[in-house]
Structures are given as C-alpha cells and as structure tokens.
Amino acid sequence: MADTPERGSVRGLRIGQLLLVVAALLLWGAARLTWVVLHSSDGLGQPKTVELAGSTWSTALLPVALLLGAAVVATLAVRGWPLRAVALLLAVVSAGLAYLAVSQWVVPDVDERAAQLAQIPFADQVLTEREYAGAVCTLVAAICTLVAAVLLIRSATAGRRTTSRYAAPGARRSAVQTESAQAETEGDAASESGLSERMIWDALDEGHDPTVRETDDKPDPPAEGR
C-alpha cells in the first residue's frame, strides 16, 4: 500500500531528525579526536609532543553540535515556513562543516597555527603531523546535516500541500451550499413572478384592470329590476 503524502512527510521529518542527532554525535566525537600532533624541541631539554584535539583546533565543533541538537528540538515544534527557515540554516551550517573538514587536507601549512595553539615558540618547532579521523567525522556530519536540511524542506512543502488539499473540499462544500441557496432564492422569485403573471392574465380575462387596485369598501352594483 503506497504511503500517503502526509505519512511520507512525517517519515521524512523523522529521518531528518535522526540524521541531525547522528551529525551532532559525530561532531562531539570529532571534537575529542586528535587533529594535529606537534613535536617540538628547544635544544635544551627533551623533545615535547603535543596533541591538539578537535575542540582546540576548531572551537566551533562543540557549539555546532549543540546547535544541531537544538535544531532537532525545533523541528518537533515548528511547521511550515519556520521549518523551512531551520532547514536553510542547517544547509548553511553543513557548508561550514564541509569547509572545516576539507581544509584539513587542502591547507598547505598548519605548523604556525599548531604552534600558536600549543603555546610553543615557532622557532622550537620540529614537526607537525595531521590526523584525519576527526576531519572524516566532520565531513560525514556535514553530509548528514545537508541531507537532513533537504528532507526538512521537502517535509515542510509536502505538509503545506497536504493542508491545502484537505482544506479544498471544505471550501468546495461551502461554495456548493452558497450556490444552492442562491438557486433556491432565484427559484422562489421565479415562482412568485410566474404566479403574478397568471393572476394578471386571469384579471384581464374577467375584464378587470390589474393595474388598478380595488378597495374592499367599493359599493356593490345595484340589482337589476325585473
């Protein structure tokens, strides 16, 4: 049995909410994973190794994860154009997450930024290593967020069409009732008009002028003698 548009809309909404939850969990995990490992030595002591987690490398990961959680709650309470507004915001967020993840591959040099975040003089730096697990989690979260945004927009549009479709029969019934009332009124007027015409012709046949109103106190004609 095929799904109705309303059921399909609800199912799309639930899948979108699930994807947002998955994306929030992925960002939480990415914030805890190591993104850059920095090895440094000042030539006096032992070499140091500093691991920069995602929450340090990109402070936006945890706030965006919270934002996605809030979006899940928002989709439970809003419909129509507010839901589409939430979906558009999620689409923008997904683009930002994708940029953050891809930059882990394409940025040519992370040494200076890693030294600043680790609070180590750049002259003492020896080597930096990139870890890509956190970036992969972030990229998957971006894809999940984008798909969720598309599903939410489709759900909001389908919900609006369903509401319009179910409102149409009521409007049609109201129009039919109005037309029926008008037809009855016109029929009554036509009946009264037809009755008046018959009365006029009857009066003319009897030799009376229908345009002259006769009074009830008109004296009776005198009786004829024999």
From TrEMBL:
<keyword id="KW-0472">Membrane</keyword>
<dbReference type="InterPro" id="IPR011746">
    <property type="entry name" value="Trp_synth-assoc_CHP"/>
</dbReference>
<dbReference type="Pfam" id="PF09534">
    <property type="entry name" value="Trp_oprn_chp"/>
</dbReference>
<keyword id="KW-1133">Transmembrane helix</keyword>
<feature type="transmembrane region" description="Helical">
    <location>
        <begin position="12"/>
        <end position="37"/>
    </location>
</feature>
<feature type="compositionally biased region" description="Basic and acidic residues">
    <location>
        <begin position="205"/>
        <end position="226"/>
    </location>
</feature>
<feature type="transmembrane region" description="Helical">
    <location>
        <begin position="85"/>
        <end position="107"/>
    </location>
</feature>
<feature type="transmembrane region" description="Helical">
    <location>
        <begin position="132"/>
        <end position="153"/>
    </location>
</feature>
<keyword id="KW-0812">Transmembrane</keyword>
<dbReference type="InterPro" id="IPR019051">
    <property type="entry name" value="Trp_biosyn_TM_oprn/chp"/>
</dbReference>
<feature type="region of interest" description="Disordered">
    <location>
        <begin position="169"/>
        <end position="226"/>
    </location>
</feature>
<protein>
    <submittedName>
        <fullName>Membrane protein</fullName>
    </submittedName>
</protein>
<feature type="transmembrane region" description="Helical">
    <location>
        <begin position="57"/>
        <end position="78"/>
    </location>
</feature>
